[in-house]
Amino acid sequence: MKTSRQHADPDGRMPLMEHLRELRNRLIKAILGLVAGALVGWILFDPIWDFLKKPYTRIPADHCIGGHCDLVVHGIFDGFFIHLKVALIVGALLSSPIWLYQIWAFVAPGLYQRERRWTYIFLSAAVPLFLAGGALAYLTMDKGLQIFIGLAPGDTTVLVGVQDYLGYAQAMLLIFGLTFELPLFVVMLNIVGVLTHERIRKSRRLLLFGIFLFAAVATPSQDPFTMLALALPTVVLFEIAEVIAFVHDRRRDRAPDPYAGLSDDEASPLDLEAIDAELEKGDRAR
Prior knowledge:
Blueprint: H1 16-43, H2 45-52, H3 54-57, H4 78-94, H5 96-107, H6 113-116, H7 119-149, H8 162-179, H9 182-191, H10 197-202, H11 204-218, H12 224-254, H13 272-285
Helix pairs in contact: 1-4, 1-5, 4-8, 5-7, 7-8, 7-12, 9-12, 11-12
């Protein structure tokens, strides 16, 4: 019995139920990757926890007990949820190649064959960008904590719960990592012809303002240092994306038009190589 995948349209078109099944399969694979990464995080909890709490221990001990800052456990079940949150953070980072690929693989069937060739290039850029964003978040977490803990009155002691700190760390890592992916999506939209460099150039000021506004709203602490730490690298990445879009549009404009010089009733040239590739794909499916 032939499966539905064998009857898939070579152009990537499929009925709504097939789209839903494809989405379900992609979600299952992404979740399995997250669970596998979370198991690694659960097993290696002690060294990972020592690494995660360092930004908090680097802040000045003016408001801490005994000259050093310790996180506080408030509830009986907090120990379990601490392990679970740390495992999920590690799982999201380790499985980022898997779920990023699943996102692209779900979108790619709707693209043309020429556009699908960019899959490996986008994936090779998406994973380092996500990890670079997470690394920058880790390096700047102590600055945001220092600013707000420093606002406490001088005669008080600040007791930060482990759950609160992990929620802050998790939000920082994910927001920075995902924000660093935004310029990559600009390049993707340009490659597929949805967003031209001319449109990017005309909306440049609005986009730059939007980056700073998003950084001010999205950062958990919303302090000026963390906002600038997110906004400035994103602006640099956006400028790189704009240059790539400019080069790509110029190269596309210089390419010869296969339909130039043809009258309305004259047959257009065929891309025999592309047709052969689609026929071969259909033969393999049968």
